[in-house]
Design brief:
The chain has 13 helices and 22 strands. It is α/β, with parallel strands linked by helices. It has 2 domains: 267 residues, Aldehyde Dehydrogenase, Chain A, domain 1; 188 residues, Aldehyde Dehydrogenase, Chain A, domain 2 (3-Layer(aba) Sandwich), CATH 3.40.309. A 7-stranded mixed beta sheet has the order 14-15-16-13-12-18-19, with helices on both faces. A 6-stranded mixed beta sheet has the order 9-8-7-10-11-21, sandwiched between helices. It has a 3-stranded antiparallel beta sheet with strand order 5-6-22, with no helix packed on it. It is globular, with a radius of gyration of 23 Å. The structure holds adenosine-5'-diphosphate.
Length: 479
């Protein structure tokens, strides 16, 4: 790992941290150090802020077509380098190469999508009801942004924020998760190559997130925070943003219900469960966290799901044929172990998995638990691992009530062959997204986001760019 980008990217230049600090990046498949990257402190954050603020005015005036073409070029460069980026992502994050390649395509698509949106920013002109005043309506970039991303989708969470910010004409500081800085640095290299002007994107890798981000949010020059991460950290950041009235988009935790009715096609439901649970080893805020299965089909569903889970191959993500890579780190795995132990103590039966393997790396086996008690901690904690927890239900009203009985509301999954029931239950779920007979909702062309404590705002889709734009209205009386 000698040729990876490992410095800070500030004002279009690659630089070391001001105090020369570095931090290690670990390979979760071996527990060994892959390489070191710059470990920024508040001084570096200040420099990045200065670069973003300086670049803002010219960038806002850049023709939308020029911004669009930079995104389009970057989209093509990402796809050309799929293998290289996938290897980088797998080495720092652990997901199997096939999934990493899928994420590269997904990540690139945000740039293509927003290259198309950059030239469609609308405005308006009209006569106000009094018949005299005219209204000119235009949309302006919100200003310099702070983008904070998590480690689970190191490339796609970056492009999902950077894409609309570039399209809207905002400059930005990206602070990736300390576990997975390499994908973000590679992305900065690609954007530079694609012609992004200096200072528009600045990347600050750090192990001291709080020290680096708080002064930026309180300083009054950053006008927007876009955050993806845990609800706990999201709350802290919202409080910091309140003081200087910084606009926010928050993609926070989930606790997705996965509901299987007695009239569901069980093959479709099991396929859906494999995606909704096992995408990214279960390390996704969209991961199915609570499986509610109608009592009459619960045994059969559990048996089939366990069979599919047992067939998955666990191992280092770089190895051919591996379906399930390691979890991100020992802390993440420890949490999964505790949640499973708690559920078993409260009476859950383990159909498959449930036992941590010996040896290096952070592996955990695909696991199916059945007869899970509603009192179990995993009912109100994001598992973030390959563990399916099955409970039974008897009727529709009951399952809706139980599914909604959580402070989160990101996504829900519903399996039924009844159209009426499918729509009724989808509408009854207090969530931002529903997979109706599918285990995958994420798509760059659709608005991603949650309600309740799962977040504020939407990413992707036609509305994704709105998060980075302000309206300005000019009143013009005609005499
Ligand atoms: P996870 O538990 O999945 O790592 P976090 O919410 O802790 O989720 O992390 C998501 C992102 O938020 C990461 O980039 C992390 O470094 C960052 N982060 C964590 N704490 C803070 C903080 N106090 N201020 C700003 N960013 C933070």
């Amino acid at each position: 790992m000698t040729d990876v980008l490992n410095q800070l990217f500030i004002g279009g230049a690659w630089v070391d941290a001001a105090d020369g600090a570095t931090m290690p990046v670990d390979d979760p498949a071996t527990g060994e150090i892959l390489c070191h990257v710059a470990d920024a402190g508040p001084k570096d954050a200040k420099l990045a802020e200065e670069a973003a603020v300086q670049a803002q005015q010219d960038w806002a005036r850049t023709a939308p077509r020029a911004r669009s073409e930079i995104l389009r070029r970057a989209y093509e460069l990402i796809l050309e380098r799929t293998d290289e980026l996938a290897h980088l992502m797998t080495s720092e994050m652990g997901k199997p190469l096939a999934e990493a390649r899928g994420e590269v395509a997904y990540a690139a698509e945000f740039f293509r999508w927003f290259s198309e949106e950059a030239v469609r920013i609308d405005g308006g002109c009209g006569t106000l009801p009094d018949g005299r005043n005219r209204m000119l309506l235009s949309r302006r970039p919100v200003g310099p942004c702070l983008l904070i991303t998590p480690w689970n989708f190191p490339l796609a969470m970056g492009t999902r924020k950077i894409g609309p910010a570039i399209a809207a004409g905002c400059t930005m500081i990206l602070k990736p998760a300390p576990q997975t800085p390499l994908s973000s640095l590679a992305l900065a290299g690609i954007l530079k190559e694609a012609g992004l002007p200096d200072g528009v994107l600045n990347v600050v890798t750090t192990s001291r997130a709080g020290e680096v981000c708080e002064p930026l949010l309180r300083g009054g020059r950053i006008r927007k925070l876009s955050f993806t991460g845990s609800t706990g950290v999201g709350r802290i950041l919202l409080a910091q943003c309140a003081d200087t009235v910084v606009r926010t988009s928050m993609e926070l935790g989930g606790n997705a219900p996965f509901i299987v009715f007695d009239d569901a096609d069980l093959d479709v439901a099991v396929d859906g469960a494999m995606v909704a649970k096992m995408r990214n080893m279960g390390e996704a805020c969209t991961a199915a966290n609570r499986f509610f299965v109608h009592r009459s089909v619960a045994d059969e569903f559990g048996r089939r799901l366990a069979e599919r889970m047992r067939a998955l191959v666990v191992g280092p993500g770089t190895r051919d044929g591996v379906d399930v890579g390691p979890l991100i780190d020992r802390t993440g795995r420890g949490k999964v172990e505790e949640l499973v132990a708690d559920a078993v103590e409260r009476g859950a039966r383990v159909l498959v998995g449930g036992r941590t393997p010996e040896g290096p790396g952070c592996f955990y086996p695909p696991t199916v638990l059945t007869d899970v008690s509603p009192e179990s901690r995993l009912m109100d904690t994001e598992i973030f691992g390959p563990v399916a927890a099955i409970l039974t239900f008897d009727d529709e009203d009951e399952v809706l009530r139980r599914a909604n009985d959580t402070p989160w509301g990101l996504v829900g999954y519903v399996f039924t062959q009844g159209l009426d029931r499918g729509l009724r239950v989808s509408e009854g779920l207090e969530v931002g997204m529903v997979g109706l007979n599918t285990g995958l909702v994420s798509n760059p062309a659709a608005p991603f986001g949650g309600v309740k404590q799962s977040g504020l705002g939407r990413e992707g889709g036609q509305v994704g760019i709105d998060e980075f734009l302000e309206y300005q209205y000019v009143a013009v009386p005609v005499r």
